[in-house]
Design goal:
Elements lengths: L32 E4 L2 E7 L5 E7 L2 E7 L27 E9 L16 E8 L16 E7 L6 E3 L25 E9 L2 E10 L4 E9 L5 E8 L11 E10 L4 E9 L5 E8 L7 E2 L19 E9 L6 E8 L5 E8 L8 E2 L6
Antiparallel strand pairs: 1-19, 2-3, 3-4, 5-6, 6-7, 7-8, 9-10, 10-11, 11-12, 13-14, 14-15, 15-16, 17-18, 18-19, 19-20
């Protein structure tokens, strides 16, 4: 249970339906917008019904809370995680949230997990300030890190096997790999006891495109690479420039894995695509040759320049989904929005009218 100091007075009950307003109440230019000056959303709905949102704010993290996943509080103070002050580590300039595992129930006491921590935060760190950009350049060196917490607010870093404290190395530290400059946006799925999968992206210098790879672990700290699982599409496709920021969840209805990801077209404009796999390791296939979420078509839309960094949340109904994402405007400002799907089969998303904070 989250400490009372982090909770807003109103509680969200699991038994009550959580619906968005009809998608006609907000101006088209602001439809879907939840939070300004924010990026890289990591959204978790706790068993009691409360919601937590970790997101990027400049070079650091911020944390907001919500009773319903729509109305978000101002940032909780102090900031959850700051760039490190140790000179030798990988994350002295920027830290960017990627995923949070909420370890509870039988998993919390599993022998596989060497800590009693409830929250395991996987993040991207860099000594290059350019990682703070909504769409960092391909030559930014960035590595995955881990921190743990018992309240979601105060974090302690856990050193990985890499000499900088990162969980994985790239380039000269792993010459046999395709990842030469980064292993970024680590998203982790607890498949079974002793079987965790980390999905991350890197820039493949051979193909000159981003791709998504996977690594496996027994304890969430020491990882073994498996290889690429998804690459960019063909000429003219919305993701021919590559794929990155893959977020994987289990589909309770279809008993398979769904990945939402950021696809870049030939000009580098971001859209959100979707792929599925039976086991989460191989056989990933796109659900469509079109993205599931496009940038705004309004010239002054808050997300007209691109949409990416997707975070998928399955709701109470097996076919009900929320897609939290980062949108970028013409001025380069990043903000967080949400789209929803309440139909059967593979989701089709509508940008949601919500309460802007």
């Amino acid at each position: 249970m989250l400490p009372a100091a982090l909770l807003s007075p109103t509680r969200c009950l699991l038994g009550s339906p959580l619906r968005c307003h009809a998608p006609t109440q907000q101006p088209a230019v602001s439809r879907g917008l939840l939070l300004r000056d924010a990026g890289s959303p990591v959204v978790k709905r706790l068993p009691a019904g409360d919601w937590l949102l970790w997101y990027q704010s400049g070079a650091r993290f911020a944390l907001s809370t919500s009773p319903d996943g729509l109305r978000w509080s101002p940032p909780v103070e102090p900031d959850p995680l700051l760039p490190s002050t140790d000179w030798w580590v990988f994350d002295t300039a920027v830290v960017r949230p990627a995923d949070v595992l909420v370890i509870s129930g039988p998993d919390a006491s599993s022998r596989r997990f060497p800590s009693s921590a409830v929250y395991w935060l996987y993040y991207t760190g860099s000594n290059d300030v350019r990682l703070a950009s909504p769409s960092p350049a391909a030559d930014v060196v960035a590595l995955p890190g881990l921190a743990i917490s018992q309240d979601g607010r105060h974090w302690a870093r856990i050193e990985g096997d890499h000499h900088t404290g990162a969980l994985l190395g790239v380039g000269e530290d792993y010459p046999q790999g395709w990842e030469k400059r980064c292993a970024a946006a680590p998203k982790v799925v607890l498949h079974a006891d002793g079987d965790l999968r980390m999905y991350y992206h890197s820039f493949d210098e051979m193909s000159q495109r981003y791709a998504i790879g996977v690594a496996r672990s027994r304890d969430g700290i020491r990882w073994i690479r498996v290889g690429k699982v998804l690459e960019g599409g063909g000429p003219g496709s919305f993701d021919e420039g590559g794929v990155r920021q893959g977020h994987v969840v289990r589909d309770r209805a279809a008993r398979r894995y769904i990945m939402v990801y950021e696809g870049l077209d030939r000009d580098g404009r971001m859209s959100i695509g979707m792929a599925v796999s039976e086991d989460g390791l191989k056989g990933w296939r796109r659900c469509s040759e079109l993205p599931v979420l496009h940038p705004s078509q309004e010239d002054d839309g808050w997300d007209v320049a691109g949409v990416g960094s997707p975070c998928l949340v399955q709701m109470d109904g097996v076919y009900d989904w929320r897609l939290y994402y980062m949108g970028v405007g013409r001025d380069g400002e990043a903000a967080i929005g949400m789209a929803h799907s309440e139909g059967q089969g593979l989701p089709r998303f509508e940008k949601c009218d919500a309460v802007l904070m």
